[in-house]
Design goal:
Elements lengths: L43 H8 L30 H9 L1 E6 L4 E7 L9 E4 L5 E5 L3 H5 L8 H8 L5 E5 H7 L11 H18 L5 H11 L24
């Protein structure tokens, strides 16, 4: 579970939960802040949250990371793995090893979860790639019943991914909106992105989770609903255990 963007995901707009302004999480049609063709604005995130199906959390039995395929599969067939795609998209001052795929260095100028600058160095990274909707959370809210292709797509969809400081990200664990949200400055953007992913993939929410989503988004009622990302089925050449 690891998700800002240069031209695709996290144009951070700092806002207060007590009076959030519309913000974005990304800059382009492949990131969680992207809105295709002008996007869905004017409170679309709140409306979408209110429309999500409510069910109880299914057992975590049977979950493993491998059920979502090999980590960072190149599902968009651009010859770069998903992790490097997100690093390129979200970091500034990017440097590469061997061409323009493997990111060796970059700066996360404002970590969405802490607001601090974080330096990325390959092999000793303080930057994670967060799954906004954690894979184990998805497993318990519908993904358990999907075919492997859809699970692999979710795990590698830029709409569900964000570069974040490792320390703050790991405090999140696999929590949903009812159990973990980032600081106020990024909260509306974060919750809108989770709603977008759950709606795109048809994942359900618990009653507590939905209530928490609506509570946050009610404070920023003009929050747009992010769109974009990859198709909801990965190419047939990818497999999961």
């Amino acid at each position: 579970m690891r998700l800002r963007s240069g031209a695709a995901i996290a144009a951070l707009v700092m806002l207060s939960v007590a009076g959030c302004k519309q913000d974005t999480m990304g800059t382009g049609d492949s990131g969680p802040g992207a809105t295709a063709g002008g996007g869905s604005g004017g409170g679309a995130a709140l409306t979408a949250a209110e429309s999500l199906t409510v069910k109880g959390r299914a057992p975590k039995t049977g979950y493993s990371r491998e059920r979502f395929g090999a980590a960072w599969a190149d599902t968009d067939s651009n010859s770069c793995d998903t992790r490097d795609d997100i690093l390129k998209r979200d970091l500034k001052q990017v440097k590469f090893t061997d061409g323009d795929c493997k990111v060796s260095y970059g700066v996360l100028e404002s970590d969405p979860y802490s607001g601090k600058e974080v330096i990325y160095k390959r092999g000793a990274s303080l930057v994670d790639i967060d799954h906004l909707v954690a894979l184990s959370d998805a497993w318990q809210k519908g993904a358990k019943y999907w075919d492997a292709s859809k699970r692999i797509a979710l795990a590698n969809d830029p709409l569900n991914l964000l570069a974040a400081g490792a320390s703050a990200n790991r405090s999140k664990g696999d929590g949903d909106t009812a159990t973990w949200v980032p600081p106020k400055a990024y909260r509306c953007t974060y919750v809108a992105a989770q709603v977008a992913v759950k709606k795109k993939y048809g994942l359900w929410v618990t009653s507590a989770e939905k209530a928490a989503m609506v509570k946050v988004l009610s404070t920023c009622s003009k929050q747009a609903l992010p769109t974009g990302g990859n198709p909801t089925n990965a190419p047939a050449r990818f497999h999961a255990n």
